[in-house]
Known about the structure:
The structure holds two protein chains of two kinds.
Chain A: H1 2-31, H2 38-55, H3 59-88, H4 97-120, E1 134-137, E2 140-143, H5 144-166, H6 168-178, H7 180-185, H8 190-215, H9 223-237, H10 242-262, H11 270-282
Antiparallel strand pairs in A: 1-2
Chain B: H1 2-7, H2 9-23, H3 30-55, H4 63-81, H5 85-107, H6 113-132, H7 134-137, E1 143-144, H8 153-176, H9 178-188, H10 190-195, H11 200-226, E2 228-229, H12 231-234, H13 237-250, H14 256-271, H15 278-293, H16 297-308
Helix pairs in contact in B: 3-8, 3-11, 3-13, 3-14, 4-5, 4-6, 4-11, 5-11, 8-11, 9-11, 13-14, 13-16, 14-15
Amino acid sequence: MLFWQILIDGFAISALYALGATGFTLIFGVTGVLNLSHGAIMVAAAVAAWAAAGNWGLGPYLGAMFGVGVGVLLSLATYFLIVQRLQRSRAIREEEKEIFILTATLLWGIMIQEAIAYLFTNNAKTVLPIVEGVVTIAGVRTPANEIFTACVCWLAIGALWLFVNRTRAGKAVLAASMNPKGVTLLGIELSAVYVAVWAVYGALAGIAGVLLGMFLGVSSYSAGPLTASAFSIVVLGGLGSVSGSLIAAYIVGYLETLTAYLISPAYRAIPALLLLVAVMYVRPRGLLGRR
Amino acid sequence: MLARILKSPPVWISLIVVAVASTLPLYVSGYVLGLLTIAYYFGVFSMAWDLLFGFANEVNFGPTFLIGLGAYTAGILDSLYQPPIILCIAAGVAASVTGGVVLALPALRVRGPYFGLTTLVAVLMLQNFVVVAAELTGGEIGLTVPDVISINDRTNYWIALGFMTVSGAILYGLSRSPVGLILQASGQDAVQAAALGFNVTKHKLAAFIVSAFFSGLAGALMVFYLGAASVGTFIDVTVGVQVIVGAVLGGRRTILGAAIGAVFLIAMGEALRPLGDLSTFIVSAIALFVVLVFPGGLLGMLKGAREAT
Lengths: 291, 309
């Protein structure tokens, strides 16, 4: 009974982690940017969906779509207002750009978080779920919403896989991650590829945020921990490796669920952190890292 | 050497500023003094961070790991056995330096973002440890320290100001010394620095130890000023962000700029407090604006203005 419960809960949570981390690692792999406003964008999407679905009476479907839209807009704003400016700046030396992008996206994330807290207070909010009710799987009463979350996450990840491997635009993205200069020589506009990647990233972060809002609820305080967990999953799996992130998301998700059920929910973050430290010491490039 | 340092404008300007600041207790309220006392400790945090980032070019996302180790070691020792305060502070510094070496040895092997990540994870670990070992550390509620250095606003203010001045002088002198130049060379091109016969790892490790020393000392002193330690004031990632933003805001690779940026940041946060929830938003927006438009920071802005005229 407990076994099945851990298996099912862990699966749904891990799927959510996987989706959140996939976007994060996509941006890093293609554009080399670690976006520290990641958590804030997820929370913003969730709160937008919450406000649209409940307060403005748009209903769960339109609300969720509105939330994802906000995620895409914020992600594009991050690119155009901050990342692009810094990447093109001549006043900053090449090797220092990384820290400037990190600092700037961090500040941007804090701004989004504070704006949410100001406009919608920092109480926890649960987005109106699209699916309601309870199903019984293998004797475990599971909210249908949990299964819905896992399915949507995997559909989104699958769609991303199809996009990258089966479409022309996706192949350009893949090529840009391998060799940006080569892509330019082939006549593909690199900045157009980057804009597309940031838009896709926004959609992924938006979906992950809205689902998280339906499943566990969010508050503006969740922004920091969300960024941190995406960060550690991506590092564990290897920066820039999507399949590594997926595996790492499942390891972290199940470790947390196991700890929460078997030991105490208060300790749930600790085993994953210990594992992360161990991996950093033994194999700093992560499980499937390229460098 | 000393005469040349004394002639450079940033040094004598800072000396004048410190001289003026030391007379402040004569005519400002205790409230302002308390605020500035905290701001000066943050100034030391930022300067210690700038030595690592600006010179060794190592992005340490975990300044609060070093600060928190120093603060909590000193605080716990005092709350358990009440030895003389100076012993507690020494223990805090020792813990911070040890923590710095433990963190630096494996972290210096890895490059770029991985170094930053390792340090960030260290902060999260320390934070979890403090919360879990609540019997020792006071957990999420915080630790109350039975002794304080002084209950007099003015004494505390002068201690903080003096401490910041001395730390600033040492760190600034170090950054302008041959060691500082080697450090800068190692940061910019490690391979070439090594080819010139400098031991890059040794210098970076030394920078880490110096940074840990001042972070831990400042953290321990701040505990005995506040009379309490909590995750929110010493360890939380947002505290580390404040330290980093202070240094970048003031102007990286300047040491003195870091102190200015940190004091400015704290003063701004307090000045905007009447705006309530929006104050953090505005402070972040200003910091973001400076980072985007004047990447050289406040000091870089002044320098640019002087060169333009």
